[in-house]
Automatic annotation (TrEMBL):
Taxonomy, superkingdom: Bacteria
Active site location: 134 (proton donor/acceptor), 162 (schiff-base intermediate with substrate)
Keyword Lyase: yes
Protein name in the entry: Dihydrodipicolinate synthase family protein
Source species of the chain: Chitinophaga tropicalis
UniProt cross-references to SMART domains, sorted A to Z: DHDPS (SM01130)
Family label: Belongs to the DapA family.
Length: 306
């Protein structure tokens, strides 16, 4: 498992009858792989995990594993309120063929540092799957501090962090304290290029679901030192990337997928599709970007130092 490169946080595709839309999921996945992504993450907040059944998670994971055919790793997200259930989900993920886990702190309860560390340790000790810790104190109210990471370093399968503190300096803090012990993947779309320059190893992206080629191009060009070319794409991309920072990021990104021909705006209740002024406003952002989509340089075969 290599925690580097671009890992889309996949949306879950639904039919109008509120069932999984596997053909549409497969279409998006194929375009993502053709664009050069390095792995996929299922069942995150963007994937509407809180409204998915365990059976649906199984179906999605097995389908993605089958479609990927070993070319990229499938990572399953775990966001549970109890340690027991998180351990169970880790066991199921391995059974279904996932090659890694993204692990959030306990949901709905604001655990302290001791509890947070113990939660991660218990799950890590229960599985052989490699783990990426999701550090997002803005949305989930629990910060995975450097001192917690120092405790987690004893578990070899805790290997990476999805860095979503919104503080780009945290990349430098992690590297200063731990060197390359933990791979760092940016989890905030609007800070990605900045974090690559500071040494981040990858990008857990949202808008990549609708714009995979542009996302991978920004990552590879930046890592190859072709900053001016990457920056031109990134500046075009920013109004779209800002859609990732809103509580309705699922609706916004699914609408972008639909406009780009890679998905549909169908969501699962209690979420509702956008209407009125809000939908018109978001459509304007998306359609303006599509009308001015940049011509990308050849990026797939770029070489760069790890």
């Amino acid at each position: 498992m290599e925690w580097k490169g671009v890992f889309p946080a996949f949306t879950t595709k639904f039919t109008p009858a509120d069932e999984l839309d596997l053909p549409l999921f497969g279409k998006n996945l194929q375009v993502q792989m053709d664009a050069g992504i390095d792995g996929i993450i299922l069942g995150g907040s963007l994937g509407e995990a809180s409204v998915l059944t365990t059976s649906e998670k199984e179906t999605l994971t097995k389908y993605a594993v089958e479609q990927a055919q070993g070319s990229i790793p499938v990572v399953m997200n775990i966001a549970e309120g109890s340690t027991r259930e998180a351990v169970k989900q880790a066991e199921l993920a391995a059974k279904w063929g996932a090659k890694g886990l993204m692990l959030l702190p306990p949901m709905r309860y604001k655990s302290d540092e001791r509890e947070t560390a113990q939660f991660f340790k218990t799950v890590a000790a229960s599985t052989n799957l490699p783990i990426m810790i999701y550090n997002n104190p803005v949305d989930y109210k629990v910060e995975v501090t450097l001192d917690i990471f120092a405790q987690l370093a004893e578990h070899a399968n805790i290997q990476a962090v999805k860095e979503s503190t919104r503080d780009v300096s945290n990349v430098t803090r992690m590297i200063n304290r731990f060197g390359d012990r933990f791979k760092i993947l940016c989890g905030v779309d609007t800070l990605a290029m900045e974090e690559f320059v500071l040494g981040a190893d990858g990008w857990v992206g949202g808008l990549v679901c609708a714009f995979p080629a542009e996302t991978v191009a920004v990552y590879k060009l930046t890592k190859a030192g072709r900053i001016a070319e990457a920056l031109a794409i990134y500046r075009w991309f920013l109004p779209l990337l800002e859609l990732d920072l809103h509580p309705k990021l699922v609706q916004y990104i699914k609408l972008a997928e639909q406009q780009a021909g890679l998905g549909s705006e169908t969501v699962r209740a209690p979420r509702l599709t956008l209407v009125g002024e809000e939908r018109a406003r978001i459509l304007k952002v998306i359609d303006t970007a599509l009308a001015n989509r940049p011509v990308l340089p050849e990026y797939k075969l770029l070489e760069y130092a790890d």
